[in-house]
Amino acid sequence: MTTVRVHAPARLHMGMLDASGDAPRRFGGLGVGVTRPAVVIEATSADGGELAAEGPDADRALAVAERCRDALTRDGVRVDGVRIRVRDAIPPHVGLGSGTKLALAVTAAMCALHGRSPDPATTARMAGRGARSAVGLWTFALGGFVVEGGRRPGSEDPAPLLMRHPMPDEWRCVLAIPAAQPGLSGGAEEAAFEELRPDPERSARIAQIVLTALLPALVERDLGEFGAALTRLQRLVGDAFAHVQGGTFHPRAEALVEALLRLGAPGAGQSSWGPAVYGIAGSEEQGRALAHRLEAQLGAGGTVAVVPFDNTGARIESNGAAR
Predict the structure, then answer these.
(1) Which of 47, 81, 77 minimizes the C-alpha distance to 62?
(2) Number of helical H runs and strand E runs in the chain
(3) Strand 81-88 vs strand 145-148: parallel, antiparallel, or unpaired?
(4) Which regions of 205-293 does DSSP assign to beta strands (E)?
(5) Which helix (H) or strand (E) holds 202?
(6) Are 13 and 31 in contact (CB under 8 A)?
(7) Which of 8, 235, 302, 323 has the fewest Cβ atoms within 10 Å of its own Cβ atom?
(8) How far apart (Å, rounded) are the C-alpha atoms in residues 74 and 93?
(9) End-to-end alpha-carbon separation of the chain, Å?
(10) Quick check: helix, strand or coil at residue 262?
(11) Is this model's pTM higher than 0.90 or not?
């Protein structure tokens, strides 16, 4: 009996290069992996040829496994029975990539059980992910800070990776998730993107910030410049969606972003549609101090944690052998 264990960290989605989707390549995006929360699944070969799943998000995991089985079968692979156990899941619809990470983790496990190790683009197609953003894919595959270049209309390939750079080991993410209505997803998300209108000036400003401030600051490990550029970027991206999410940020997230900045975070923003927000800190100590001060702003049911950035991507272990 063979067991494959996949550990897939969450991601922060930090914005789109062309939010209107009016350029030759649609959207583009940037983001980074964080070590927690994470999807952890175990997939074990089983007799009988049937697929089964248990644990949080079991229904979603099973649907992905069935899709992956069909793709493997079309490629001539004899698919055995598989039992999937979801040990840990990322909170859904808070902006941390729960669906993408679960789908990629299940697909990677199914492929590993059957002797396959597809490249990231193939994994995304098998999982049915990457239709709009490939930030989740590239942080799954590689970890670190990633920029992807957008997807060609009509193409089934996920957006290409433009750059990947590790985050400084000492930097920390102060991750806050308020008790609030979830961010947009599904049909509501599709409708929101349909309402976007071209804004070439905003897109040009976003690209300039990424290329001439954010990325150089990351390479030079300049936390102050990186944080300031990230905050400007987040406000520009948020303004593009203000008419569909009720403001520059999710209604519950805006006060938390402002609080993080007021309390000393060099940079702060909202991940995807929120309501999860994050602040950047220069060390574990600074992160803990910032998180402690932020707790009073969260209210009942909210959580705040200091987490390292993830520079490795998903870990796949087969009967104790990691790769």
Answers:
(1) 81
(2) 11, 12
(3) unpaired
(4) 268-270, 277-281
(5) helix 200-209
(6) yes
(7) 323
(8) 32
(9) 19
(10) helix
(11) yes
